[in-house]
Design goal:
Blueprint lengths: L1 E7 L6 H14 L3 E5 L8 H7 L6 E4 L2 E2 L5 H14 L4 E6 L3 H6 L8 H16 L6 E2 L4 E2 L20 E3 L4 H10 L2 E4 L8 H13 L8 E10 L3 H18 L7 H23 L3 H6 L4 H4 L3 E3 L1 H13 L4 E6 L4 H20 L2
Parallel strand pairs: 1-2, 1-12, 2-3, 3-5, 4-5, 5-8, 8-9, 9-10, 10-11, 10-12
Antiparallel strand pairs: 6-7
Helix pairs in contact: 1-13, 3-5, 6-7, 8-9
């Protein structure tokens, strides 16, 4: 099973600690590092820096927001990172959500799946070395009535994998039809079909097999003997996803939990969060909304959870390992990697 870590995100980080953590992850055999992009750091700059300080680990944007760049600029950034990393770059794309897109980027969150499809199609034209001549609903190259002409990005053709971070059913179907990989969140291997059924349907409609898509799922990991305490510590994060990661009417994370069998619970948490009752929202998160969406518990319990992910068809785990300091975080990652290697070594 492949493994990943993440860097960046909404909060500032110490680049020296980030670099050391990534270097140690590379030493431990981690396969990917994904750079988050929300309302803090961008997804590109950190990877450019890491490309010059690593040699094996694959570097991916997890994700580049399609609303923040034109498709041609997305392609140029991807090609630059491909060169800087000597072919280790993976382009992860996603639509983000209405609060970030409209609040931060000032772009209407309208027909996000159509925008995603157009972005992927234009980016692939660029990767193939073709002239960027395109007519879509939102993107027109060259601009009609202007002085521009169809241009070819000055770079030899190259094959850069495109992974999509999708959650809604139609977007998941598109992932199955068109993507090289999937970056999954709000995923439970106990309720895998809430996501995978849609990806499979899209793949089959396009004449592909589900095996053609590399399936990655975010997996929060916490190891310890006090299981109740470990679960309780993660309930505020679940409540944040259910209540804050989207608007009152559009929250893809909340909808994913609902499809996984927690409809009433997800709606109740969201209502409390939006009402400003954040502590109460966290308190009503059921234990199962933590334990079934990650690997939490004793060593044996966590190892069993990893097996459950693998049996569900997941190819890679994006490990969310939390610890107070850098050394503790590295030690925790080493422990997790040993567990995962024990799965690969078992018959």
């Amino acid at each position: 099973m492949k493994t990943s870590i993440t860097v960046g995100g909404a909060t500032g980080t110490d680049i020296r600690n980030t670099l050391e953590f990534v270097r140690q992850a590379e030493r431990l055999g981690v396969d990917y590092v994904w750079s988050a992009e929300a309302w803090g750091q961008d997804a590109v700059t950190s990877l450019a820096y890491l490309a010059g300080h690593t040699s094996r680990i694959r570097l991916g944007t997890g994700i580049m927001q399609i609303s923040a760049r034109t498709p041609s600029m997305t392609a140029m950034s991807a090609l630059a990172l491909h060169d800087l990393s000597q072919g280790r770059f993976v382009l992860g794309l996603g639509t983000s959500g209405p609060q970030v897109v409209e609040g931060l980027q000032g772009v209407a969150f309208r027909a996000p799946l159509t925008r995603l499809k157009e972005t992927v199609e234009i980016v692939r034209l660029a990767f193939r070395g073709e002239k960027l001549r395109y007519r879509g609903r939102f993107h027109h190259l060259p601009r009609p009535g202007g002085e521009g002409k169809a241009l070819r990005i000055d770079h030899p053709p190259v094959d850069i994998p495109i992974f999509l971070a999708t959650l809604a059913p139609k977007a998941l179907e598109y992932t199955g039809a068109a993507a090289d990989g999937w970056l999954g969140t709000s995923f439970s291997p106990d309720h895998a079909e809430a996501h995978l059924a849609h990806i499979r349907r899209g793949a089959q409609a396009a004449g592909r097999s589900l095996d053609a898509i590399e399936l990655h799922a975010t997996c929060p990991v916490a190891i310890g003997d006090n299981v109740e305490e470990l679960i309780a510590a993660r309930k505020p994060g679940v409540a944040f996803s259910l209540g804050a990661m989207g608007s009152a009417t559009t929250n893809f994370y909340n909808a994913a939990f609902q499809r996984s069998g927690f409809a009433d619970e997800a709606k109740a948490v969201q209502r409390l969060w939006i009402a400003g009752q954040r502590r109460e929202a966290a308190e009503i998160v059921p234990d199962a909304m933590v334990s079934q969406f990650g690997a939490i518990g004793t060593l044996g319990m966590v190892r069993q959870r990893f097996q459950t992910y693998r049996r569900a068809g997941i190819d890679g785990l994006t490990l969310r390992v939390e610890a107070d300091g850098l050394n503790d975080r590295i030690a925790a990652l080493e422990q997790v990697m040993e567990l995962i290697r024990s799965l690969d070594d078992s018959p």
